[in-house]
Amino acid sequence: ALAKKEFKRLFSHSGYLLNGVCGALLMIIFGIALLFLDLTTVFNLPADELAEVMHALAPMGAGLMMLFIGMSCPAASALSLEGNSRGLLFSLPVSARQILLAKAMPTFLCDCAAGLVFAVIFGIRLEADVFGWAALLLTAPLYSAFTALGGSFLNYKYPKYDWTNETQAVKNSIPMMIMVFGNMLLGIAVLVLSVFIGPWLALGVDLIAAVLCIVIFNYLKKVKLYV
Hints:
By secondary structure, this protein is mainly alpha-helical. The protein is 78% helix and 0% strand. The chain has helices at 2-10, 14-36, 39-43, 47-57, 60-70, 75-78, 86-90, 96-125, 130-157, 166-171, 174-197, 200-219. The protein is elongated, with a radius of gyration of 19 Å. The mean pLDDT is 86.
């Protein structure tokens, strides 16, 4: 019921929706464009050289996903949007962790679904190898979970209840800026370095993201929400 309420709020406010899922939409758009793009025409290279270029570019997919996923984090402002009505939510007979996990659910599902679509298209079109596919398919759920839980955790730490409109709560909040700009920097770093390192950097980041998800999930057992 709480998660359903979060989805309804997300799709009820255009400013919240636009800022919250812009990265997921960009992944879908980029994936569809890539699906119809003629790579032979774009690179204008012989078949053997084109294969080498695609082999070098394939590991970049996971970094690109991290960049886009990091741009979509409505969880970073979901708690703040309760505003003056938060007292009613906090008085419900559910734990604080259940409330925060419900706040994180739209972020995870939107990013993960868009990420999986992008991963499949990118992997097929760039002819990723086994480890490239592993990086793509693991990044979608693991990095989406980290972004969702991280955003919810930061919003718990730095709530902003005294907003005048939803857009202000979404755009002018510390948690949103930390998640968006932090994830963008990390995504760009992985995107660039993967050309030289291959998919191993993305796989390492995914492992760290999984560990942080477990840490945050366990930490949320002890939190309390106060009006």
